[in-house]
Input
Amino acid sequence: MSQDPWLQNYDATCRLAQEIAENIHERNRQQRTGGNPAKINMTLRASLQKLKQNIAQLKEGLLRASSSRRIMQSEADRRQNLIDDLLTREKQLNSTFKGDIAEPEPSRSTLMAGGAGLSGSVAANPWLVNESEETRGLTFGEIKQQQQQIIEAQDAGLDALAAVISRQKIMGQEIGNELDEQN
Output
């Protein structure tokens, strides 16, 4: 039994959104390293336009399928939620592309939905789609090492703060003693 064409189009659209996110990341990396992101910018503009068209096609397909009663209302609602999540993702990608925000926050519905009904699709996993730039491409061991370094830096900062507070406490006590002597 072949998969529903609407679901195939949805999967392709999710993959396109993932590719766009990866290209934006690559463009940002090139900008940081002094590279020329002009070619990627052109590709991104075309891809974002294609994403918009694909979402519009998904909407039309859903409208046709639900009005002709080829799918049940519950399936139509589920698919509408998937389209809404894609629209949110498109807005986030457009904002990120234009530089309005550094990294989009995953919406609660995206996190909770997790691409229900999609088996094995990387784009269906919001944890992979919204991976931060600091951890993208790192292994679990490297991420753990990075987190350990962050914790060590925080501990060093807390130790320095404790030393400052301790010195201020001693100074306060000495000032108090001096005042007692003066009185």
About this structure: The radius of gyration is 26 Å. Residues 101-105, 114-124 have pLDDT under 50 and may be disordered.
